[in-house]
Amino acid sequence: MENLLFPLLLVALIVPMYLATRRQKKEMAKTAAMQSELSVGDRVLMTSGIQGIIVEVDETSIDLEIAEDVITTWTRSAVREVLSDDAYDESDPVAEVESAADDTSATDTTPRLNKD
């Protein structure tokens, strides 16, 4: 019985490590393929959380328009994902917040200096 314990222990440790490595390689290959297929006009999400539209593609870098007339240069490896057109909402979040603030009426307008 002791002769079987060590080989079973090795198998129990090696199999999950192999499966995890295999899954990680698949994800890396998928990400590399996505980054190599970037083209002008794609809406992308960067690893830093910035969203923008690709305006120029080089061999190792991309130029990203993050606001009107604001273009930044990034490496291709900084792209996390390509966003679909329905993932981007054209509505203005600032205007929505301002209109929501106008709708609420404050009953007590005196400033409070403490939490009581």
Automatic annotation (TrEMBL):
It is found in: Cell membrane. Keywords: Cell membrane, Membrane, Protein transport, Translocation, Transmembrane, Transmembrane helix, Transport. It holds the Pfam family YajC. The keyword Transmembrane helix applies. Its main location: membrane. Residues 85-101 have a biased composition (Acidic residues). InterPro entries: Preprotein_translocase_YajC. One of its GO terms (biological process) is protein transport. It is a single-pass membrane protein. Residues 85-116 are annotated as: Disordered. GO terms for cellular component: plasma membrane. Belongs to the YajC family. This is Preprotein translocase subunit YajC. The gene is yajC.
